[in-house]
């Protein structure tokens, strides 16, 4: 890869998510060369992907060009590439655009959807981890309603209007809320010749409550809100099979549904080339010590979702969400600067800022450290926090404008099938 | 096709562009059933596609859901479908989702890119007539610069940074201006390790002036503006071949360019099934009389780009742009209502509101009926007119916000490769 050699040590960061971007930003003006690599030329604000999928926000408003983040920083380089392997002996990464030597390597590759080995579900269900996936889901939802108009077969029509969300975490809950808002405000007007009451939104949750990483009161309230919105909630049920039409579970429950959204799990997006013992099996995350150093290596780090730092409070690693990634990125920058300036390193300590989820219009649940609240105020807090977590003034302004418009007008105007998802005969 | 039968005559409108939308809007609350058919579920504001292609606007801000246009109008139906043929004997249209009987048929299918039979150019060049095409071009432009970083072959790198725009009409001129602004403000910062001065923007125009449907002073000024922005202008030259790398012309001039944008001509997007003598050969438009009635039929109409109404002032038909389409859509609604209420029909008379084109920041040319002007004021007029021609308050607000932001910050933030265009090895 075509990066000039300098006398500075080279830090290669793989991944431009929250962790990688925060690290890069905090390494500026140091005696380091920084190369950031991502398979996209933009950073994705994943927490709002579900609003793209449901026609509430344009995709471009939650994506931010990575080159803009690092522009005007001397010694910073970005390369659009996919890393296929790392060679820790030769201190090289191998990518689709060539090899690159590193002095320090930081793996910040995030997470990907975990199908737990079920290739049929992987093939037929929809995921929502990237902008194109969310756009595919947006197209599919709308194409389903267009197709529902065409069939006189009632079973088929109902299947086209039946949405099964597997997984009751924040993604599943927020998507269900947004679909329910579409059902209430948009679809009956857009499709007056369909009986939209027949549209079903189902959440199938393996555990015994939704939002099981949040407080019990948050779970309860979220369920209340969803039930009030007409969402069907199934707990203690596992989806075991899906062939594009029939959803099977480990119980008597089954569905006929044209759309299954798989939000039941994520795993680390690990890279090839690390010793196997670095990887913690189940969630496929990379074991790191309290300095985010990958166990067994001196100059390889992992941060964010892909890193598993086992602590007393988090024996299975920190939650795979934005906050630990942001904090680890920032913290690793501190430690790297400490290392090159011969100062003592500090172990990473996660500051839990809490968790929140929104459930449609005017409703959210928020768990902060000392206080928990739900309802309208929580919803405003949710919006405020998400708005200010977005990177870029323009993105914030466009998202804000859309939210205000959608709120006042009860609308979602980006219900556009820009690239159809279904293959037409 | 599943449309209920009523006692009202059924008007089938094929195409949701300016003409089709204006017709539909003006037929509301009449004793008519209106079925609007389009292959997309959204209306495209084509005049701003070049801003999508150059990262200045998000695609969703210039697209508007057609269902929203016609919602709450009784007796209105929309179907997402492609019309393959019309059967004027049986008064039916044949689509990919079935057949539909009509009492009145209105063909408002617009125009498509005219390659004048050159299949190689069609295969290798980019067009900019639809949202996906513009997004493909946006991806390709950005991918070219990413790839230019990777090659040490100077010739190849220059070809990747060489843009050939074929056609010096408004589309070609506006795109060239936008590319020149990218070259000035964005690309040198995004790609500090490339010599962006090597980027070439070329307009190849077959005639002896740019914007040849506008006044001579507009042409001259547009050329001045473009030259000032560093755009190379070649007049009286025809591109005759392109193989994805080498551009051949009918003169000694040739280019090595990874990107050719074909903006050299459009033709009517006609439908199969009309008698051949209805079609005017060269531009493939449908001959209509002064009531937009297709010659030889009593109940088949054509409006907008696809219609060719030969008048004294426009013997080859009206210009293929938004204004005639909007006016014909409105006017045909008037005549249709007149017909069902037994009032006299009025022939269509085109009110030429003038033409305008923008050439980068602060520069535009405007020809109005009585006055012509160029420069900053023209640029504001251009923006004002385009902003208020957009359908939908949200779209206007988002476009306005982007323009203000881009203007103040000298920026274009939607430089995102959401769906890569090039096939990667």
From TrEMBL, chains A, B:
FAD/NAD(P)-binding domain span: 10-329
Record-annotated External alternative NADH-ubiquinone oxidoreductase-like C-terminal domain positions: 353-408
EC numbers for this chain: 1.6.5.9
Catalytic activity: a quinone + NADH + H(+) = a quinol + NAD(+)
GO terms of molecular function: oxidoreductase activity
Record key words, sorted: FAD, Flavoprotein, Membrane, NAD, Oxidoreductase, Transit peptide, Transmembrane, Transmembrane helix
Pfam families per UniProt: NDH2_C (PF22366), Pyr_redox_2 (PF07992)
Segments traversing the membrane: 376-393
Superkingdom: Bacteria
Homology family: Belongs to the NADH dehydrogenase family.
Protein name per UniProt: NADH:ubiquinone reductase (non-electrogenic)
Lineage of the species this protein comes from: Bacteria, Pseudomonadati, Bacteroidota, Flavobacteriia, Flavobacteriales
